[in-house]
Amino acid sequence: MKIFLDTANVEDISFYGDFIDGVTTNPTIMSKYAHSEHTSLIRQICGLVSGHVSVEVISSDFNEMIKEGRQLASIDSKVCVKLPCTLDGLKVCKRLSIDGIATNLTLCFSPTQALMAAKCGATYVSPFIGRLDDAGHDGLALVEDISDIYNANEYETIILAASIRSINHVIQAAMIGVGAATVSPKILKQCLEHPLTDKGLEIFANDWKVGK
Ligand code: E4P
């Protein structure tokens, strides 16, 4: 399973570089870190990772999204154009896929949106686990349904588990067998640590001193 870091913070991206395959952003994330010009920040992030950097279009109209998507893709070959799972977003996905531009269909909340994303040639589809859970639904059940649909139909679109709120979400997504998950720096840190490991190290270090 690929791990993407869900941030535009270059310090975090550099710090966790050994563990990540790429980066995902959205307009909320970009607005926090791109103070003046987005393009240079996108270039900088692309220089730090080996894989895709998802950058979302701002417009929601077909013609504007196509223009924006092509412009984003021209910044760096690692840019993956993030598009909403709307009728227009899916149409843009189809066009950009034909042009060989990587796409990430975001804000996916239903199996049929994921089905249509695959049919339109999306590189990734991003089901939002946490936001579905927040709304009283079962985000992981959606991921399982999409996985069944993609396996049954042999679609190549990669499921990118998104809106992850806990390490349990990461574990369950990996057990389902999704191709990728995107996590915040906070969740990635939790994936890399365990309090009993730290406690065990402390005990070993103390015992070593006492024994000497
Ligand atoms: C993914 O691509 C999104 O940027 C992100 O995972 C959304 O997470 P949130 O629901 O915590 O904002």
What does it look like?
The N and C termini lie far apart (44 Å). Helix 8 runs parallel beside helix 9 (167-176). The protein is built from eleven helices and eight strands. An eight-stranded parallel barrel has the order 1-2-3-4-5-6-7-8, surrounded by seven helices. Helices cover 53% and strands 17% of the residues. With 212 residues, it is α/β, with parallel strands linked by helices. It has a single domain (2-211), classed as Aldolase class I (TIM Barrel, Alpha-Beta Barrel), CATH 3.20.20.70. The longest helix has 17 residues, at 195-211. The model has no long low-confidence stretch (mean pLDDT 97). It binds erythose-4-phosphate. The site of erythose-4-phosphate has 11 residues, from helix 7. Erythose-4-phosphate (E4P) binds next to helix 7.
Element layout with pairings:
Layout: E1 2-6, H1 10-15, E2 22-24, H2 27-33, H3 38-46, E3 53-56, H4 62-75, E4 79-84, H5 87-98, E5 103-108, H6 111-119, E6 124-127, H7 129-134, H8 139-153, E7 158-161, H9 167-176, E8 180-183, H10 185-192, H11 195-211
Parallel strand pairs: 1-2, 1-8, 2-3, 3-4, 4-5, 5-6, 6-7, 7-8
